[in-house]
Amino acid sequence: MNSHTRRLSRTMESYERYVILAIIFSFARYTSASVTHYSIPEEMKEGSVVANLATDLGLDVKTLNQRKMRLDIIANKKYLDLNKETGELYVVEKIDREHICPTKSLASCYLKLEVILDNPVMENSPIGKRFSLSNAVDPDVGSNSVKTYHLSESEQFTIEVQTGRDGSKFADLILKQTLDREKQAVHNLILTAVDGGTPARSGTASVIVHVLDTNDNPPIFDQSIYNVKIMENSPIGSLVIDLNATDLDEGLNSDISYSYSLYTSEKTQETFNLNPATGEITVKGMLNYEHFRIYDMEVIAADKGATSLTGQCTIKILVEDMNDNHPEISIKSFQSPVTENIELDTVIAVVSVSDKDSGDNGIVDLHIPDNMPFKLRESSDNYYELVVSEPLDREKVPEYDITFTVTDRGSPPLSDNETMTLELLDVNDNVPQFPQSFYTIRVMENNAPGALLSSLTAFDPDLHENQYLVYFIIEKEIANTSMSMLFSINPENGNLYALKTFDYEIEKEFLFHIEARDSGSPPLSSLVAKVIALDTDSVHNSRITYQFLQVTDATLFSLDQYNGEIRTMRMFSYRDPRHQRLVVVAKDNGEPALSATVTISLTTMETAVKAYSDMTEEPLEYDIFSDINLYLVIGLGSVSFLLLITILVTIVIKCQKPKPSKAAPPSRNSVISERNSTIADSTLVSNDAYWYSLFLAETRKGKLVVRQPLPKGSRYIVSSIPRGTGLTDTISKIFRHTDMSKRTAP
């Protein structure tokens, strides 16, 4: 086979090759079966059209792109190019003949170009379809020319040899089995042309069959279902998943675009962004585990073939909880204040805890500070009771700041706290305490009566009325003398006074007890022993006698010279003056004797008496009596005087008429009196002491002792009313204390 035959055989592939020879400055144009000649002038303008190859070669312009038409210039520069839309060959760079052929004559200067087009074989071509192959050329003639063709072994292709009108032999490639480009995209065949000479000669050509793709494969995802986990609060733009769908086709048939299906909710589409070109799903909105935990979506992958094929997958996005919510405390109830003697296991507070997170992030633990007399007790799910676990003592800790701290088990853990103040109320659980349990007070003999001996102060750690203390001298007799006659103590501040002048030779010491009592309910008290060294001469000197210096009606009152008791000798009558004036002198037994006087003014008032029970030593026991207006009935004159008196008393009792009463002023102390009853027993002490006056009233039911401070110039009203009546006139007795700091001879 000659060289021409060999050149043509190179064109017998699955694509056609056209060799274009451009003869510069040549105007001749001819076309052969596979070679086309053009002649153009040199230095044509760029963009100038040389020829339309599609028209000259009989090609369909619409198939140029599909057949991948391309130009191969056998030169060191690209002088020409093809427009695949129109099939035109045009100048892209100035052509210089002298540069191309510097030593050749004008007639022999060539620019060789080769146009290559694929001769497509579609994978969906039907069985039996024919594909034309270029025939072999043999310069010999007759029986020595091309006689037949042979094809290498192939399952998909065969050939059929045919004879043309001019007697030439050519072969058609025939498809005998369905093609699948995805399985085998290229078939390499050998076509052999054999002549009829003897010996026979042959030539071969490679037939390369490129199977063109048809859109017969849909996009396929790696998985049909994807489960993806993503943390809540992931930043906007965070990658969730990169979907990868594959299409076995090629070109536009394998170019995939991604989109949501109609089954994907709007909320999901608002939360996640799907890149249609790459299939990447990224975070578009805020993710909050507590609001939305699972997102379901369906994504469709579609190719861009003429008849688009699609594939789909389901994606389930699980939002994982992040420990982004602090646990919360809610105080459902809190009891404050409480008494310090509250019982153990008493519930003080009820607390609930919660956490919006899940898993360990939502498991919470509640704590209170250690070393507190309380404990937490879980009552139900996430509910706790704060109960008293140890005895409380307000005097040690008056209030507790209880901090409830709740902590979750996330990593890192989050916590919250709330502090409540528990106030303790005082109960009277502490007795008054003296700094010392035994006191020794030294006093010089011949002391002045009323002198301050010492100030005894006790302490009670309780509060309010539980710490308000009252001081008492425990009553006791020494040498037939009551302690209250020797000493006096201020119940409010514990100042201890001497009421007598003491003589060391008579009594060297006094031993007695002081009681400090609080005002709680019930009251608590404690004792302190006192030892006082004294001069016993004071006992003799302190003996006081009393007598009237002046009295308005001597038949109405009597005075005991030793104890100072003033008694009524008879009942008050309407005939008695409304104002009574008594002057009493008190003298001691000293040498020289010292004395003091007191003036007692009494006024009769028609008012009811209300006794007050808030007295210091003993409760007041009394009956309500009333004074009467006595109406005397004159009887027979012959009745003896004794009978007359009896009748008069009987008439008075039966005829007494109660008068409206008025409450006694609350600032006065009233004492009940009847005939021969005690009006008052006044102990007189020096004016510079803390004054006390003792009123003793004896009734048929008992005695009343009233102890009350009497500053200089103070007054007290003592009312005397007869027993057995509801209403009566009241006699008020006003005591005026004279200055006893001045001593006078009797």
From TrEMBL:
Chief subcellular location: membrane
Cadherin domain boundaries: 121-221, 222-329, 330-434, 435-548, 541-621
UniProt source species: Oreochromis niloticus (Nile tilapia)
GO function terms (MF aspect): calcium ion binding
Record key words, sorted: Calcium, Cell adhesion, Cell membrane, Glycoprotein, Membrane, Repeat, Signal, Transmembrane, Transmembrane helix
GO CC, any one term: plasma membrane
Record-annotated membrane-spanning stretches: 630-653
PROSITE patterns registered for this protein in UniProt: CADHERIN_1 (PS00232), CADHERIN_2 (PS50268)
Function of the molecule: Potential calcium-dependent cell-adhesion protein. May be involved in the establishment and maintenance of specific neuronal connections in the brain.
Name the record gives this protein: Cadherin domain-containing protein
Top-level division of the source organism's lineage: Eukaryota
Signal peptide start and end residues: none
Family annotation (InterPro entries): Cadherin-like_dom, Cadherin-like_sf, Cadherin_C, Cadherin_CS, Cadherin_N, Protocadherin/Cadherin-CA
Compartments in which it is found: Cell membrane
Entry membrane topology: Single-pass type I membrane protein
GO biological process assignments: anatomical structure morphogenesis; homophilic cell adhesion via plasma membrane adhesion molecules
